């Protein structure tokens, strides 16, 4: 799996240590760039000391070769093995500020001049770590597009299809840091890789449930989180695609009613993928669900399933599995 991931990222021919010629990071200056972030136009001074929250967001910076513009990152240490990834050089070079959620103190201690995070990927109302709070400290922010609040409720997220969110952020970051060609190459190669998987998709698409966590109620993906398009581009149908949110909780009764053919487990946290699988296979209300009856359970890492440069590789691997399911 790691070799496949490395090959997929090398295909992008960017500054990821894969031997490709790359665009140099431009010199630091005081120029400004105007971007659209979560539907609002924002003018930024080009940052020199970026602080990021969580693995997918951090790796977007690494994939663009922007380690030199980073002051540090925060993420829990339950997000998988980071010793054998295409961006190991970035992790070795950039300071790991916290193994918890990012705080204002982390940012100030690192002398950060820009925070790249997302709602529920660092930004939260209940702890006061918000774009507005950082603005009062004179620190601008960029919100991960997958996590943009959409106004349907106070907390519901998602304003565009998940892969479009990925391409939007790569393009915006490329413009902000003067690495547009590098960003465009990444986007083009990701689109090609995904198109190749789509071309091999089965005619009859298996129904798929994304299972993140939860026993009383499952935490899953609606139409606006990355799993929606990871599943659909791989050749499946997300059984919760009508849920007008990104990551959210549903009821087990809705899972039973929709009867998925495959369950994809999100692997992270204190509960292992094997423990999650054991629960699903032994949970009585699911005993007649097709995925459970046939033990069709597939595991992807957390970073595969949030907006990140690993999404195309996840689509390829899930696509291979779904074709085996469709052939039976």
UniProtKB/TrEMBL annotation:
Coiled coil: none annotated. Residues 1-20 form the signal peptide. It comes from the Bacteria. SUPFAM superfamilies: Helical backbone' metal receptor (SSF53807). The keyword Signal applies. Residues 49-328 form the Fe/B12 periplasmic-binding domain. This is Iron transporter. It comes from Streptomyces graminofaciens. Belongs to the bacterial solute-binding protein 8 family. The lineage of its organism: Bacteria, Bacillati, Actinomycetota, Actinomycetes, Kitasatosporales. Keywords: Signal. Pfam families: Peripla_BP_2.
